[in-house]
UniProtKB/TrEMBL annotation:
<dbReference type="GO" id="GO:0006355">
    <property type="term" value="P:regulation of DNA-templated transcription"/>
</dbReference>
<keyword id="KW-0805">Transcription regulation</keyword>
<keyword id="KW-0238">DNA-binding</keyword>
<protein>
    <submittedName>
        <fullName>Autoinducer binding domain-containing protein</fullName>
    </submittedName>
</protein>
<keyword id="KW-0804">Transcription</keyword>
<dbReference type="InterPro" id="IPR036693">
    <property type="entry name" value="TF_LuxR_autoind-bd_dom_sf"/>
</dbReference>
<dbReference type="Pfam" id="PF00196">
    <property type="entry name" value="GerE"/>
</dbReference>
<dbReference type="InterPro" id="IPR000792">
    <property type="entry name" value="Tscrpt_reg_LuxR_C"/>
</dbReference>
<feature type="domain" description="HTH luxR-type">
    <location>
        <begin position="182"/>
        <end position="247"/>
    </location>
</feature>
<dbReference type="GO" id="GO:0003677">
    <property type="term" value="F:DNA binding"/>
</dbReference>
<dbReference type="Pfam" id="PF03472">
    <property type="entry name" value="Autoind_bind"/>
</dbReference>
<dbReference type="InterPro" id="IPR036388">
    <property type="entry name" value="WH-like_DNA-bd_sf"/>
</dbReference>
<dbReference type="InterPro" id="IPR016032">
    <property type="entry name" value="Sig_transdc_resp-reg_C-effctor"/>
</dbReference>
<dbReference type="InterPro" id="IPR005143">
    <property type="entry name" value="TF_LuxR_autoind-bd_dom"/>
</dbReference>
Length: 248
């Protein structure tokens, strides 16, 4: 369901209208609170959209624990006061921030990175509910992959409409954590095919992928076509779904 909504939302040309549609769509699957937050590689110039007015009155957006602890991999992280014990590394100030969000009804949720540290900009979505841990695990956790793909697709459109600086996808210049995040099926691609497919799947336009790889747009299309054929998919949305599938 969420992917179909994303395909419709991607056609919008006004960022306020897009944000409104994103919030409404995520409400359908149970998220009461929606935050989109990115910063540059020096934790400066935050770009923030949020349904939680006043949340960042005491803590600057760039100090959000999501940015400091969750954006080293594309794994979706369970967050909120109901899951705080899973994150013993958070500082006292960060814990107080999470607890303050809890007083506004953010008890459980997902942190969904859409760009990783090492990119020109990184961050993603912070999604919250008022559910206790057991109920969240039962109702929302089964939707993890669908929510993740939706966020990845919407992130690309937000970047386009907000005119944010394009960020090369971290796996084009792998970090120590990057290789283990790829499903086994990607091993059948050549290094360039893999690079192009991942860039497109994570939201880059073909022009941006061409600039990052130092090749022409036509060559990007050729590599994408070959990569999709080897993966058994037909477009970037299907490649993104495969990229986030950990069953291989």
């Amino acid at each position: 369901m969420l992917v179909q909504h994303a395909e419709t939302l991607e056609k919008l040309t006004d960022i306020d209208e897009l944000w409104h549609g994103v919030v409404q769509t995520l409400e359908l699957v149970g998220f009461d609170h929606v935050i989109y937050l990115t910063v540059n590689d020096h934790f400066d110039t935050p770009f923030l959209r949020t349904t939680m007015d006043g949340l960042y009155d005491r803590l600057q957006p760039q100090d959000d624990p999501f940015l400091h602890h969750a954006c080293h991999s594309y794994a979706v992280v369970q967050i909120g006061t109901e899951f705080i014990q899973k994150h013993p590394h958070v500082t006292t100030a960060e814990r107080e921030f999470v607890e303050r969000a809890g007083t506004s009804g953010f008890l459980s949720g997902f942190g969904v990175p859409t760009r990783l540290k090492g990119s020109d900009r990184f961050g993603g979505f912070i999604l919250g509910t008022g559910l206790d841990r057991a109920t969240f695990t039962k109702r929302i956790t089964p939707l993890t992959e669908e929510v993740q793909l939706f966020c990845v697709l919407i992130h690309r459109r937000i970047e386009e409409l907000a005119a944010l600086p394009p960020s090369p996808y971290a796996l084009s210049q792998p970090s120590p954590d990057a290789p283990q995040t790829l499903p086994d099926r990607f091993e059948h691609l050549t290094p360039r095919e893999r690079e192009v497919v991942i860039l497109l799947a994570q939201g880059c336009s073909r022009k941006q992928a061409a600039e990052i790889c130092g090749i022409s747009v036509h060559t990007v299309s050729d590599y994408a076509k070959m990569g999709y054929r080897k993966l058994g998919v037909h477009n970037r949305a299907q490649a993104a779904a495969l990229l986030h599938d950990r069953s291989d």
